[in-house]
Amino acid sequence: MIIDLNPPPPYNFNLKLKFYLLPSRPTPSIVKDNAWLRVFNIDGKLIPVKVWSEGSVEKPKLKILIVDLSKDEKRKVVKLVSLMLGVGKVRELYSFMDKDEILKKVKNRLYGFGKAGLMASTIFEGIVKAIIQQQISLKVAETITANLVEKFGEKIRFQNENFYDFPSAQTLAEAKLEELRKCGLSWRKAEYIKDFSLKVFEGKFNPENLRKLKPNQIVEKISKIKGAGRWTAELVMVASMGLNVIPADDLGVRKTISYFYFNGELQDAKTIKRFAEEKFGKFLRDILVYLLFAYRSEKG
Q1: What's the number of domains the chain is made of?
Q2: Are residues 161 and 205 located together in one domain of the fold?
Q3: CA dist 88 to 12, 39, 63, 82, 201, Å?
Q4: pLDDT at residue number 299
Q5: Distances (CA, A) of 278 to 82, 93, 216, 233, 295
Q6: Number of neighbouring beta carbons within 10 Å of residue 2
């Protein structure tokens, strides 16, 4: 079954795919032959999804290949695809960026990148990924994530290709610490992930309930998770929940904004947070992702 999805223009699907640091490894998203693959867990049903483009930047058209699904399941798949691949209206965002010389250059360079997508399909996935990312580079974190997905995630064979789901809370809760360590995790992070997964599996913590809370409440809840704090909570909010916040304590975020707006002189988290919130306003999250992508492209 193929579903047509027409993103609001401009939308450059190939540019979107370049955002993935390890395209050929499952994180659990995979980029292969100009297509995006991963498994979604929809109400307990694992659904392999393949997305590719048959349109242009100004007349975008995405094709979504899935198994036969109910009308409700199809609706949920399209919503997840749209959220993860940043499908949405950008005209207002681009008009805002055009008023600032730095942002205008970034926009022109990344024209059609779309909205900032999500890096996880569930908040559980997002929290585990955030724990992995603590104190290490994003590329190393993505490598560890891919190792974790390959070892513990469920793999589905569909259309002669492998599709992966992120490991379930039960699987990670029951995993031995030594097995988690072999994926590249430190002992401490392995313990944090196992402990968190156990709480989710036993029903003591439901990550999806965080969607009902305000940002300060989300920080409070996530900070109670062993090994998590404000940085983890803010990363989850921006990368996995799509909230308009900035993880200002993140070194990569500080370096990026300092590079573009402070002549490369590294600013503290408080300065970065105040500057970004005041300057970018309601476009904060989207602009942050554009700047991060542009900075990564320049610095390699």
Answers
A1: 3
A2: yes
A3: 12, 22, 16, 7, 34
A4: 79
A5: 28, 16, 19, 21, 21
A6: 8
Q: Is the pTM of this model over 0.90?
A: yes
Do 223 and 257 reside in the same domain of the chain?
no
- Backbone Cα Rg of the chain: 19
Would 94 be classed as within a structural domain?
no
Same domain? For 193 and 273 the reply is: no
Domain assignment present for residue 61? The answer is yes
| 161-164 vs 30-32, strand pairing mode | unpaired
DSSP of 93-121: HHHHHTTSHHHHHHHHHTTT--SPPPS-S
CA dihedral 143→137→240→28, nearest 10 degrees, is -10
Around Cβ 175, how many Cβ atoms within 10 Å? 19
Q: Is residue 135 part of a domain?
A: yes
- Which domain, by its residues, includes 258? 251-299
Any alpha helices (H) in the chain, and if so which ranges? 13-17, 71-84, 91-97, 101-109, 123-133, 138-152, 169-174, 177-181, 187-201, 215-222, 230-239, 251-261, 269-280, 284-299
Looking at the domain assignment, is residue 111 inside a domain?
no
CA distance 276 to 257: 8
CA distance 71 to 49: 16
Report pLDDT digits (tens) over 176-231.
999 999 999 999 999 999 999 999 999 999 999 999 999 999 999 999 999 999 99
164: part of which helix (H) or strand (E)? Answer: strand 161-164
What is the Cα–Cα distance from 61 to 53, expressed in whole angstroms? 6
Contacts (Cβ under 8 Å, ≥6 apart) of 263: none
CA separation for the pair 286, 221 (Å, rounded): 25
